[in-house]
Structure formats: structure tokens, C-alpha cells
Design a protein that fits this description.
heterodimer, A: about 325 residues, alpha/beta, Rossmann fold, 7-stranded mixed beta sheet, 12 helices, about 15% strand, B: Rossmann fold, 5-stranded parallel beta sheet, globular, binds thiamine diphosphate, binds magnesium ion
Chain lengths: ~325, ~350
């Protein structure tokens, strides 16, 4: 075991997989020589050479498309899109090609590609460096969507993603790269060093895609979260002294409805959350599915904690970001109903 | 610079010769203003008054200054996220630019845009764009509107060496030439896209040749020499204004600072930066021409620096004093208000 932040644990996952499997290659804008703007691919070029860790031009459409071609021929490309906000030029290739190759070829060809991309706010990035676009991708049959919330899960899930025979869009909540974040704007930066999920095995291990985890047990209300909001929700429950059960979803497509339903049937109350704008977000999908599965166990309407239906603002980031207050208000609302 | 719009009048007077005294002094003042503005922005960032992303233009001042000198009122300008100097060149108010950097109500986008997203309808400045390459196609659309309205205006579209690889750039080149749109593509080749040197990402590193297969003329220009930039820009603008279609100018330039404020700069050497700074600085070059041509004394130039510093200090004060926008501002301007 070693203490790692999320950057180091993701780097370790790539290192472990490149060591084990010569078909794994890593590339992206500034991802080779420079080691990535967030350093996730640091030292890979030195260790594995230019053929296996390289820079791409600023060409998101072709980066995604190249990865598809490479993977169809048997490589295991891990392509980095520098910020999730820039993934859209590649969206056509993800929708029309990446997701459908297996189906369209009746299983003759598969695309074991991983698209890694940092997402989310809390870094004053404004409208082009803060997005959480995961819902777009959960609406595409044929791709898996993963978003870890800590260094341990990040490594285990990235290894699973690389080993998966099918494509994975792997979102990395960048606000969590260097330390846990509880949703308060000011204050000192926390460190993964003192967090149990900052303890990471150095070698190979993987976590199952599609499996959620109850990260805080409770009996009064269930909060479903993923990425940064897992930590925000836990902190909010702690602060409000509410006996909330917090579920870290980890995989959004396919998502683990069993774990959610078990919890909601126990608590009878539920909050679903996301950083992204409210309308047509992933939380809406969760709410719909939960009421199908748990309608007769629900004692209050499901509440959503989300961003607002605006572009991500530069000023007033903390009025936009769904912080602990919004979780506490939602908990009070479902508990009083 | 803030108040006056640049025109071609002094250029016409000096055509054929080197630039005259007034023109050189104006270049000097404008470039110094950009540099002092960026230095101040860097300081405010260090003090925590500016947050998030902030890309400084220091080293590249001759490019926008020379291009702007060849434009007429009503011509449009659009660029990427390294945009502060472009706005000053267009005559936008330093106070409004600095206050947008600090995310305040007095900013050009009332705090909603930040460093990368500012606009001025009055000055025909179309932003400020965070998505690399987006402005190239948008600028081509502006030029389409000019051609459609037959208004004899041109659109100047600035982008970097890294942006020059985006697919939409080539889709735009094709349409611009197909319809002979009045657009000037200014590639600011500062030799790096973030941490990636041009040769690591581009098969053809002479970027002015990128229009060849579309039939778009292109030229490489010393982007550290404002007079050379101005001469090349006049030619390109004339070409576009006469309806002959797009023109590519590749400006060889250099950025002294990191890509943004959080750049560890491990991809180039200290010596490389120092060499350009001490031997090819665009402001030093004009200063030398002013002094050697006996157009100005050291004292006069110091006086200009003082004036400029005062304007920039006032802008910083304004950007600190301007209140945060009202939280309700967060929800306005998503769609037209009912
Ligand atoms: C579509 C898109 N991809 C990637 C980025 C991230 N990014 C921002 S600036 C930049 C480098 C651009 O370099 P260049 O065009 O040379 O301009 P310079 O920064 O040198 O002025 C990159 C990769 C982005 N903002 N948008
Ligand atoms: Mg560049």
C-alpha cells in the first residue's frame, strides 16, 4: 500500500497496465512529452517510449476516432480529452461509431477503448473548464460511463475500464485530483494523505464496473451521488447530524439500481444529485427509475440537488455549485414531508 | 488607446517610408499599455483577486498592435482565450476588461465570462473564446455576413499554432475561399500550444502554407516587429476588402509567460525564454527605433510609461472596487427575458 492522490493513482493504473499489456497505449493533447496538464500521464513516455505514450494535436474529433480504429484492430487505447468541456468535437464519433461497432457488426468487432477526461467545477474554471457532461453519454446505448470519487476507486476502475472489452468514458472529477473536497469555497486544501481511500495498492487490482458502494450507512434518508458530490453529501450529513445513507454510484452506465433500491426501501426517502444543470440530467433518470422500483416504499417525493439551468458562471461559482447547504435543505425537505 | 480608434490615416501619410514619429510613438504606447496591463493582471492573480484561468499575452504585443493599425472602424475582431490585449487594441476600456478578470459587475460580461469570454458590440469585438479553434469558424461567419451586406468590412480571426490543427479550421478555409469571404486568418505562432512544441503536433510547421490546397495566399511575418506586421496586414486587408477572399498571416512570435497562470513551464528552457526577451523584444525594438531616429528621448518614453502605469493602476483599482454582480445575475441572459 502507498499513499496516493487521485493523479498518482490514475498514473499508477496506466503504469500497471502498460507494463502488463503491450497493446495499451496512452495519448492526448500535451499527454506525452509534458505528461498531461494535470500530470496524470507523467513519466509514461520516458518509461514506455514515444510509440506508447504520445502527444496528439488539438483534434478531439480525430483523437476519439483514432482510438476507435486502434481498438477495433486490437489495441487498448487510453485517450485523454484534456477537459470534458472539449469532448464535444468527438461526440459524433462516440455516438455514431464508438458505441455501435459491436452491435452493427454483430459482435465481430469490439472497441476496447477508454476515453479519460477531467470534469466538474469547483476550480473557478468558468463556462469552458467546469462542465459535468456525463448525462449526454449515459444517453448512448453501447458505452459505459464511470466516475470515481477517490484515489483507490479511481485506480481500480481505470484498470477495469482498460480491461473491459467495450468502450468506457472515464470521467475524473478534477476538483478531487489533489484532495478530498467537502463543498466549502474557502479554507485550506485537504489531502488524500489522511483519507482511508488515499491508501492505494501499488500493483494490479480492479473494481467491478456497474457496482455502487454504500459509503455512509444511515436509516433516515438515502443520498445517491457520484464524483465530487459523494464527499459533499457525506460532509453535509455529518454537519447536519442527519442519519443519511450515502451511496457512491461510481458507474453511471450501467448503474447499480439494486444497491440504490435496497437502501431506499430501508430509508423511505431519497435525494439524487449531480453537479450538472438540472433539466434532463442524470439525476432525473435516477429519480424515474427509483420511483419505478420503490414507489410503495417512498414516504416523500424524491428531491434533486443539482446545478442550475445556466452555463457554468465565472462569478458566483459557489452559488452555482451544489454545496452542503443545498444537501441539508433537501434532507430537511424530504424528512419533513 | 482606450478612447481612440486606430485608423489608417497616419499610415497613408507614411506609406513607402518607415513609420513616422507619431506612428512609432503610438505603437510604443499601445504595446506598453498591453504589457503593463498583463503584468498587473498577473499581480492581481497572485493576490487572489483573479481566479481560475488567465492567459497573458506578454511578448506577443506587436501582433495585435500591427494588425489593428491596418483596420478601419467597423472591422471585426475575434480571438481565443489569450484575449486581453486584443480588447485593448480594439479600444475597449481597460477598466471593464480588468473588472471582468476579477468577476465583477463592472466587467464587460458582468462577471459571467471571466478572462476568456469578453465582448464589445460597440467596438465590434466578438470575443474571447475558450474552445480552441471555435473562433476560426465564427470569424468566417462574420465575414460571410460582411460579404452578404456588401459593407466592405473585414473580419480578423486570430488563433494559435495549436488551434491551427483543429478540423473546423480547414472546413472554414474551404468555405472562405469557395465564397471569397473577407476574412484574415492571423495565426499567432508562439511556438507552443500549452506544453507542446509545434513540431510535436504539426506535420507541416510552416503554418502559412496551410491554405495552399484551398488557394488561400499565406505569408510568414516577423511577429516581433510591429512595423513588419502592419505592412503585411495592410496587404492582407486590402486583398480581403477588395473582394479577393481570405488571406493567411503567420506571425512568428513568442509568449514569455506560462500558458496560463499555473504552468510549470517544464517544456522549454529558461535560456530560450531569456534569449528572446533580451534580443527580440517587440517593445525594445520600437524603443530603439524611436531613440536612434531621434523621435523621442529616454525621458519622454519614461513619461509615457508613467501615464500608462497610471491607467493600468486605475483599472486595477476599478476592478477591486466594482461590486460582485448581484446573485440574480446568475440566471439572466440564458434566453431573452420575457
Ligand atoms: C477544443 C479545445 N481543446 C483543448 C483545449 C485546451 N487548450 C487550451 S489552450 C490550448 C493550447 C492552444 O495553443 P495555441 O493555439 O498555440 O494558442 P496559445 O495558447 O499558444 O496562444 C489547449 C490545448 C481547449 N480549450 N479547447
Ligand atoms: Mg501557441
Amino acid at each position: 500500500m502507498a499513499k496516493m492522490n487521485m493523479i498518482q493513482s490514475l498514473n499508477s493504473a496506466l503504469d500497471v497496465m502498460m507494463e502488463r499489456d503491450p497493446d495499451v497505449v496512452s495519448f492526448g493533447e500535451d499527454a506525452g512529452y509534458f505528461g498531461g496538464v494535470f500530470r496524470v500521464t507523467a513519466n509514461l513516455q520516458k518509461k514506455y517510449g514515444l510509440d506508447r505514450s504520445f502527444d496528439a494535436p488539438i483534434n478531439e474529433a480525430a483523437i476519439v476516432a483514432m482510438a476507435i480504429g486502434m481498438a477495433a484492430k486490437g489495441l487498448k487505447p487510453v485517450a485523454e480529452i484534456q477537459f470534458a468541456d472539449y469532448i464535444f468535437p468527438g461526440l459524433d464519433q462516440i455516438v455514431s461509431e464508438l458505441s455501435r461497432i459491436r452491435y452493427r457488426t454483430a459482435g465481430q468487432f469490439t472497441v476496447p477503448a477508454v476515453i479519460r477526461t477531467p470534469c466538474g467545477g469547483g476550480i473557478r474554471g468558468g463556462q469552458t473548464h467546469s462542465m459535468s457532461p456525463e448525462a449526454f453519454f449515459t444517453h448512448i446505448p453501447g458505452v459505459q460511463v464511470v466516475m470515481p470519487s477517490n484515489p483507490y476507486d479511481a485506480k481500480g476502475l481505470l484498470i477495469a475500464a482498460i480491461e473491459s472489452p467495450d468502450p468506457v468514458i472515464f470521467f475524473e472529477p478534477k476538483r478531487l485530483y489533489n484532495g478530498p473536497f467537502e463543498g466549502h469555497s474557502g479554507g485550506a486544501l485537504a489531502s488524500w494523505g489522511n483519507h482511508p481511500k488515499g491508501e492505494v495498492p501499488e500493483g494490479h487490482y480492479s473494481l467491478p464496473i456497474g457496482k455502487a458502494e454504500v459509503v455512509r450507512e444511515g436509516k433516515d434518508v438515502t443520498i445517491v451521488a457520484y464524483g465530487t458530490l459523494v464527499l459533499v453529501a457525506q460532509a453535509a450529513a455529518e454537519r447536519a447530524g442527519i442519519d443519511a445513507e450515502v451511496i457512491d454510484l461510481k458507474t453511471l452506465a450501467p448503474y447499480d439500481i439494486e444497491t440504490i433500491a435496497r437502501s431506499v426501501k430501508k430509508t423511505g426517502r431519497c435525494i439524487v444529485s449531480q453537479e450538472a444543470p438540472r433539466t434532463s440530467g442524470f439525476a432525473a433518470e435516477l429519480a424515474a427509475q427509483i420511483q419505478e422500483e420503490c414507489f410503495y416504499a417512498l414516504e416523500a417525493p424524491i428531491q434533486r440537488v443539482t446545478g442550475w439551468d445556466t452555463p457554468y458562471p465565472h462569478a458566483h461559482e459557489w452559488s452555482y455549485f451544489p454545496g452542503p447547504e443545498r444537501f441539508i435543505n433537501a434532507m430537511n425537505a424530504v424528512l419533513e414531508a | 488607446m482606450a478612447a481612440k480608434r486606430n485608423t489608417k490615416s497616419s499610415a497613408a501619410k507614411d506609406a513607402g517610408k518607415g513609420a513616422g514619429k507619431d506612428e512609432l510613438l503610438k505603437y510604443y504606447r499601445d504595446m506598453l499599455m498591453m504589457r503593463r496591463f498583463e503584468e498587473k493582471a498577473g499581480q492581481l492573480y497572485g493576490m487572489g483577486l483573479i481566479a481560475g484561468f488567465c492567459h497573458l499575452y506578454i511578448g506577443q504585443e506587436a501582433v495585435v498592435t500591427g494588425i489593428q493599425a491596418a483596420l478601419d472602424e467597423g472591422d471585426q475582431v475575434i480571438t481565443g482565450y489569450r484575449d486581453h490585449a486584443h480588447m485593448l487594441a480594439c479600444g475597449m476600456d481597460p477598466n471593464g476588461v480588468m473588472a471582468e478578470l476579477t468577476g465583477r459587475e463592472g466587467g464587460y460580461s458582468r462577471g459571467k465570462g471571466g478572462s476568456m469570454h469578453m465582448f464589445s458590440r460597440e467596438k465590434q469585438f466578438y470575443g474571447g473564446h475558450g474552445i480552441v479553434g471555435a473562433q476560426v469558424s465564427l470569424g468566417t461567419g462574420l465575414a460571410f455576413a460582411d460579404a452578404y451586406k456588401e459593407n466592405k468590412k473585414v473580419a480578423v480571426t486570430y488563433f494559435g499554432d495549436g488551434a491551427a490543427n483543429q478540423g473546423q479550421v480547414y472546413e472554414s478555409f474551404n468555405m472562405a475561399k469557395l465564397w471569397d469571404l473577407p476574412v484574415i486568418y492571423v495565426i499567432e505562432n508562439n511556438q507552443y500550444a500549452m506544453g507542446t512544441a509545434v513540431k510535436r503536433a504539426s506535420s507541416e510547421t510552416h503554418l502559412h502554407k496551410r491554405g495552399a490546397s484551398f488557394g488561400i495566399p499565406g505569408e510568414e511575418v516577423d511577429g516581433m516587429d510591429v512595423e513588419a506586421v502592419k505592412r503585411a496586414a495592410e496587404k492582407a486587408v486590402k486583398h480581403a476588402r477588395e473582394g479577393k477572399g481570405p488571406y493567411i498571416l503567420e506571425m512568428k512570435t513568442y509568449r514569455y509567460r506560462g500558458h496560463s497562470m499555473s504552468d510549470p513551464a517544464k517544456y522549454r528552457t529558461r535560456e530560450e525564454v531569456d534569449d528572446i526577451r533580451s534580443h527580440h523584444d517587440p517593445i525594445d525594438l520600437i524603443k530603439k527605433r524611436l531613440i536612434e531616429g531621434k523621435h523621442a528621448s529616454e525621458e519622454e518614453l519614461k513619461e509615457i510609461d508613467k501615464e500608462v502605469k497610471k491607467i493600468v493602476a486605475d483599472a486595477a483599482q476599478f476592478a477591486k472596487d466594482s461590486p460582485e454582480p448581484d446573485p440574480s445575475e446568475l440566471y439572466t441572459d440564458v434566453l431573452v427575458e420575457a
